[in-house]
Design goal:
Elements: H1 2-15, H2 19-29, H3 34-55, H4 68-88, H5 91-119, H6 126-142, H7 147-158, H8 167-188, H9 195-215, H10 221-244
């Protein structure tokens, strides 16, 4: 179950985001506490994101300002802060917040394009874009659900980046968030106490991430969107039932 969830999660992250829904749910179903499952998911998804980034390396479209390097630095720093918050805040707070975080991420998945069109605010300065990227990366380090789609919506609303060409940049920035938060989790969250789950999920995510990045070039965008959104709704419902049922 964990291996299959890793493959599906890696593929979803490569094609449009939402893989954290599957990975987190599978680990919790396997008996892992939510905070530990979230940290393990972040670490396990990193290699899959890295393999997807490698496939996309020649397809990256960006905007002139801020530079991709500065954007990546904001992602790295925000991811580190988000990971620190996850470890420092009481685990009960995260347990209670998970269903609502999933619900919020699901709404972004469902209505992100409409919200982007509604709130398009032109082209603010590079500092404002970097600040927004930093805030989103904090969320990504703390939880991560749909953070890549939030980034894409934010860039579309504030820059001239074509959303149809933004997926490679999304994958790279999510990988940057996962890199720092994952390193922190490895050394501070004791996720190595359950290495079998971690390694199994990690291997599955690598396979799914590589295959998904190639698959996205063949499947219609509508099919991918429906797949991701269906997964998000199902997992959100399960977590609400688990929390309040």
């Amino acid at each position: 179950m964990i291996l299959l969830a890793g493959v599906v999660a890696g593929a979803l992250n490569a094609v449009g985001g939402g893989g954290s829904f599957v990975a987190l749910s599978a680990l919790v179903a396997g008996g892992m506490p939510p905070v530990m499952a979230n940290a393990t998911t972040t670490v396990a998804m990193l290699p899959g994101n890295a393999t997807s980034a490698w496939v996309y390396r020649r397809d990256v479209h960006t905007f002139s300002q801020p530079s991709t390097i500065r954007l990546t630095v904001a992602s790295v720093l925000g991811g580190a802060l988000g990971a620190g918050l996850l470890l420092l805040l009481p685990s009960a707070s995260f347990d209670a917040a998970v269903p609502w975080l999933l619900a919020f991420a699901t709404l972004v998945l469902a209505f992100g394009k409409r919200l982007t069109r509604a709130i398009r605010i032109g082209t603010p300065g590079p500092a404002a874009i970097l600040a927004g990227q930093f805030v989103l990366s904090i969320y990504g380090g703390y939880f991560g659900g749909a953070v890549g789609l939030m980034m894409l919506a934010f860039w579309t609303a504030t820059t001239s980046l074509d959303p149809a060409k933004g997926n490679p940049l999304r994958v790279i920035q999510v990988a940057a968030v996962y890199l720092t938060s994952g390193l922190i989790f490895v050394f501070a969250a004791n996720i190595l106490d359950q290495p079998t789950y971690l390694v199994t999920m990690l291997l599955g995510a690598m396979v799914g991430g590589y295959a998904g990045a190639h698959l996205v070039r063949r499947l219609p965008a509508t099919v991918l969107r429906v797949l991701v959104l269906t997964t998000a709704v199902a997992m959100t419902t399960l977590f609400f039932v688990r929390a309040f049922g």
